[in-house]
Model the fold of this input.
Amino acid sequence: MNSKFIIKLVFLVVVLGCLVLMGLNNPGNVDFRLPPAIPTKIVLPAAIMYFIFFALGLITGAILFVGGKKGGSKSSKSQGS
Done:
């Protein structure tokens, strides 16, 4: 494994730890309103809201940053004359 992967993994674990701490220390219900997209009020525990927002951010980041290197490098066999 390379060091870049290890750093990203440690960062993800730290963020997940913060998510768990927020969920444990905020057990109350939260009102969520988003009138253009969701016409009704949603009432959920704060821990569930944190998890949902984290998951949406993680999925968004994965969509934006995963892949993208389709060309790849050419091998020496395909460049021969």
Notes: The longest helix spans residues 3-25. Helices lie at 3-25, 46-65.
